[in-house]
Structures are given as C-alpha cells and as structure tokens.
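Reopening: structure tokens for the adenosine-5'-triphosphate complex, inputs below.
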Amino acid sequence: MKKIAVLPGDGIGPEVIGSALTVLDAVTHDLEFLHGEIGLECHSRTGEYLPRETLDIIDESDAVLFGAITTPLGDPNYRSPILQLRKQLDLYANVRPLRKVHPSLGLVDLDAIIVRENTEGMYTQIERQDPEGVTLERRVSIRGSRRIVRFARELAEKNCRKRITCVHKSNALRRSDGLFREIFFEEMMGSNLEVKELLVDAAAAAMIDRYKEIDVIVTLNLYGDILSDEGSALTGGLGLSPSANMNAEFGLFEPVHGSAPDIAGRGVANPTAAILSGAMMLDFLEMSTEAETIRLAVHDAIDKGARTRDMKGDHSTQQFTDVVASLCHPV
Ligand code: ATP
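Re-run output (same inputs, fresh job):
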C-alpha cells in the first residue's frame, strides 16, 4: 500500500483533486490517501499557509498530489508554500509533458517533455531593495545544473526519446547560462540521444513552427516556466496540462493551472490536468499499467463527447469525471 499526501488547496483545487481521487480509485485500491491543508483558506483558519501537520503527513507519504493555492494580495511577507515545499523537499526537477490529450484539442502536434530546473535560476526569491531599485540574485550552480541535466538524460533514455535540447540564453548571459550549457554538453557525452541546443527565444518559436524537432528540453527555471505555459496553450490549454516536481526519491504532482478563483465553486473546472497528474504519480510509483489506463480513459471520454466548458462542451466537472472513471477498468 502506497501512502499519498493529498493537498487540495484553494479555489478549484479541491474540485479537481476530488476528481483525480475518484479516477485513481477506479484503477487501484493500493493507495492510501492522507489529507492535508495548505494555502490561503488554511491560513485564514489556522494562521499558517503550510502547517506542521501537513509537513508530517508529507513525511509519512510516498508522493504528494497537490491542487492549487491562491496567492494573497498585499502580504509583503508571503512566501509561497508550494515554492517552500519544492525547496524543502529538494524537488529539483519540474517535469511537464506536452502533448495533445485528444487530436481535436490544441493547435500543434507537439510531443515534448520539458524538464526545468526548479530550485535556483531566477526564482531564488533573494531580492535586495535600495533607494534606486531592487536587485535579484539569479543563481546557476554547478551542482544544480549537473543534477538537472542528469535527470533529464535519464528520463529521456528511460522513455526511449530521440533528442535532447538544452535551452539557454548564453549569448546574453555568458557566464551563468554559459556554465549550464557547458555542463549539458559534458553530461551528454556518450549518450545515444541526439544532442542539440537552442536559445530560449528560438525555442519559443520552434515550438510553433518546427515542433517536430522538439523532443526533450532541459532548461533553467524561468525559461522552463514560460515555455511550458506556451506548450500548454499549444496543446489544449491549462485545464489539460499535468506536471511533476521530482527528485530521484520523491515526487509532488500537480496540475499546471492555478486556483482559478473566477470559476471556483461552480462545478465547471476541467479536472483533466489533475487526473493526468495522478497518472504521472502512478508512473513514478511504478504503476505504469494503471497510469496508462487513466490516459486512455481520458482520451476515450473526450472521444465520446465528454467535454467541459473550456473544451467547448457542457459537461460539469462531476459529469466529466464520472465518464472518465466509468472507462477505467481496475488492472
Ligand atoms: P492563480 O493566481 O491561482 O494562479 P489565476 O486565475 O491567475 O490563478 P489560473 O488559475 O491558472 O490562474 O487560471 C487562468 C485562467 O484559466 C482562468 O481564467 C481560469 O478560469 C482558467 N482555468 C484554469 N484552470 C482551469 C481548469 N482546470 N478548467 C477550466 N478553466 C481553467
């Protein structure tokens, strides 16, 4: 029995994570769910965004399934609990598969995986204010670069991908991005993968006009963040995009979208991203048959006409979830 820390969070988080749990229940009885609190609502009740009890639940668990949190307005001391968790658990790799869930959705036939460095780069949160403005510390370390490149190489090889592309901006950021690039080529020596590089601006364009050339991308934090949202938009939208924050031993799985306060509580959110994040979690737990069952069920549900509003349909979150669950058969 694997233990899963379930952290639904704010806004549509509880709705879409509820759907993911329904679908996971339909494919396996080998998961035990431990529910924890996180985020803005938790803060208004308990005074904490990430209470000790939640950290204890995570400690006991084999993986985390996370929904979304709402960022408070006007709290200068706010530290995002999800950024905190990524740091604390040292989940240095952010993995986002980018491909159409169904041929009728999305704009481009991309089939890519973006592996993004998750702990340093532009998101160190170390900012210094002086009378003239603000200076941000942007960190590119040898250790951080080496481990993310190794992670991406292993992931590409394990998934029988053909090509790996390092995305950077070393023409402008010669020392920092130059270091990342150098380590990439060092670490790729001896690999059977086709090894490429692209400047981040060229990569943004290539994802649209040369998408067949994009396979696995390994990149720094900010570039990965932006390119993966572009990839989401190209392959169907935020409601369909799953992601993982990982290291070799542990993983936190979450939909790419945020808490979507504009549609929260109305039962119209698309739960696909959360459901597919659950499937990524099963892959990580070496339950790949069950994971594939979920992916097929999502495809078949959409094929049969089940679509939420963002997919130009009229299914509620619950109705869509019920169709997916009914197409999942326990393995
Ligand atoms: P946050 O500050 O929590 O990131 P946000 O509204 O800025 O919230 P998202 O939550 O990612 O950012 O939402 C962006 C837009 O996409 C919103 O209009 C939202 O309604 C829509 N959206 C996001 N997720 C979904 C979903 N699962 N189903 C349908 N629409 C969604």
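The pocket of adenosine-5'-triphosphate is lined by residues 12, 16, 68, 70-71, 238-239, 257-263, 269-270, 273, 310 (CB under 6 Å). The domain at 1-91+249-331 is CATH 3.40.718.10 (Isopropylmalate Dehydrogenase). Marking as resolved unless the reporter disagrees.
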